[in-house]
Design brief:
The chain is an alpha/beta fold. It is built from six helices and nine strands. This is NTP-binding protein.
Length: 237
Amino acid sequence: MILPKNRPHQTIDTPHNFFIYGATMSGKSYLAGHFPNPIFLNTDGNSLANEAPSIQLKNDLKTGQSVIEQLDEFTKEIETMNSQDDYGYETIVIDVIDDVATLIEQAICQKANVKALSDIPYGKGYATFNSVLQGLVMSLKAMPVNVIYISRVAEKIEDDGSTKEIPSLKTKYYNIVNGNCDLVIHTQQIGSRYLRTIDKKRKNYYESKIDDSNILRLLKAIPGAITKEQKTEKVGK
């Protein structure tokens, strides 16, 4: 029998999917590295610069393995890992998602022997790309781990002429990824200070409903991540 009993239950509301963006050296990877038991899927060649275990993502011309096949192999291993052994990862960090999107594009083009997705007839190139990226994001979201997507920044010119930092991930790709994230965190370095601010969040997250002490500790250090709970007063008779 799969039907739950028809009764209220205590809600648990811990965010597990995060999008972190910021300029170079603004503390993106540093913040991600403080999540519990992380493994980095690295694209910038700096995997050895981080103490956490990492995998270098690439389209390997020597072995013929594409990044799509590499990611598929990784997700299958994560799904079957034993939390009690040496592979008990609790956080997956995609560093950086911008490069992963480019690598997926390259893999599709190489397989079709074309230079761009637009060269594949009937829009099949773009359809394949969207399917691969959406499939990756949904597979990661379904896993019982934290998922962090790291992105670089681009500058947006506002109506008043000022500039604003935004994720450099293409908007159509950002919408796929961000649509499955709980919090968007913007990192900045201003002088010797490292700032972290909440750009977007799926809903209000309250301390009493977050059941992971490590996640709670990290979020409490980011202004705006935790919503202050309203105290309700009991009215006497």
